[in-house]
């Protein structure tokens, strides 16, 4: 299951029967379907899954989700380094 | 003025975006995003069909492997679905699917999708209707390909 990432709606458009928004994530922005969150508009934060906004969240919730995501990424990186024997291990293992 | 990117995305998600939001609300959480590199096999012919895929970007070739070669059946682009045999009882793929370019797709695990259909037959019927259109289109493409193969055997074959 993909991680449900929160983002901020920057613009919104109606394309045929659908409402789409340009949603800003940490380092990118992309078009997202807003049909499941009729209450969300420009300036609001939404939780996104496979291209669809599935829930409106507060700015505080969005920030918290980002912090948790960042922590889990850092934890995963540390675990990988530990598995490899520390951050310097890869350098030590390089042939001379 | 609607940016072109939005029109493209609306078209790419056509299979889902035209569904009733009540159904969409149940379908979306079942899905996951998948990426495939150029040349990567999405599934092989006869494999257990584990996912129904909606192509969001990129191009996929549906092929039938024949004596070390591959006969192209159809090229699929954004907005098209593949792996519909995931919904049948036997659930084995009838073609092999190969990413021609980097491909981004939304994948619905077959077991979760079938369970959701059992719980909400109206939703199942709505999606199956859309998929039936897809199967019809695929059959037409196969017929055309067979005709081309009959007329120009070498041109219709692809490595």
Offer a few descriptive terms.
heterodimer, A: 96 residues, alpha+beta, SH3 type barrels, five-stranded antiparallel sheet, disordered C terminus, B: 159 residues, Jelly Rolls, 6 helices, 9 strands, globular
What does this structure look like?
The complex is a heterodimer of chains A (96) and B (159). Helices cover 31% and strands 35% of the residues of chain A. Chain A is an alpha+beta fold and 96 residues long. Chain A has a single domain, classed as Roll (SH3 type barrels). A 5-stranded antiparallel beta sheet of chain A has the order 3-2-1-4-5, covered by helices on one side. In chain A, a hairpin with a 2-residue loop joins strand 1 (5-15) and strand 2 (18-24). Chain A is elongated, with a radius of gyration of 18 Å. Residues 90-96 of chain A have low confidence and may be disordered. In chain B, the strands form 2 sheets. Chain B has a 5-stranded antiparallel beta sheet. Chain A binds chain B through residues 1-2, 13-18, 20, 22, 31, 33, 35-36, 49-52, 54, and chain B through 2-3, 5-7, 9-10, 13, 16-18, 21, 24-25, 28-29, 31-33, 56, 106.
Outline:
Chain A has helices at residues 59-83, 89-93, and strands spanning 5-15, 18-24, 29-33, 45-49, 52-57. Chain A is of the alpha+beta class and 96 residues long. With 159 residues, chain B is of the alpha+beta class.
């Amino acid at each position: 299951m993909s991680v449900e990432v929160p983002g901020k709606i920057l613009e919104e458009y109606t394309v045929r029967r659908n409402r789409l928004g340009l949603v800003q994530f940490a380092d990118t922005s992309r078009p997202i379907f807003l049909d499941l969150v009729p209450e969300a508009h420009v300036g609001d934060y939404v939780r996104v899954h496979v291209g669809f906004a599935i829930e409106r969240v507060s700015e505080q919730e969005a920030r918290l989700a980002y912090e948790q995501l960042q922590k889990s990424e850092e934890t995963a990186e540390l675990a990988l380094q530990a598995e490899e024997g520390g951050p310097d291990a890869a350098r030590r293992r390089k042939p001379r | 003025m609607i940016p072109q990117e939005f029109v493209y995305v609306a078209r790419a998600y056509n299979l889902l975006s035209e569904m009733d939001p009540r159904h969409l609300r149940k379908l979306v959480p079942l899905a996951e995003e998948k990426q495939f590199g150029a040349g990567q096999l999405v599934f092989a012919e006869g494999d257990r069909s584990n996912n129904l895929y909606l192509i969001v970007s990129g191009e996929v070739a549906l092929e039938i492997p024949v004596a070390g070669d591959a006969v192209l059946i159809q090229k699929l682009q954004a907005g098209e679905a593949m792996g519909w045999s995931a919904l049948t009882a036997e659930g084995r793929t009838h073609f092999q699917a190969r990413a021609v370019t980097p491909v981004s797709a939304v994948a619905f695990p077959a077991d979760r999708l079938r369970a959701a259909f059992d719980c909400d037959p109206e939703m199942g019927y709505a999606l199956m209707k859309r998929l039936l259109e897809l199967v019809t289109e695929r059959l037409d493409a196969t017929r055309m390909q067979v005709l081309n193969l009959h007329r120009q055997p070498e041109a219709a074959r692809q490595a």
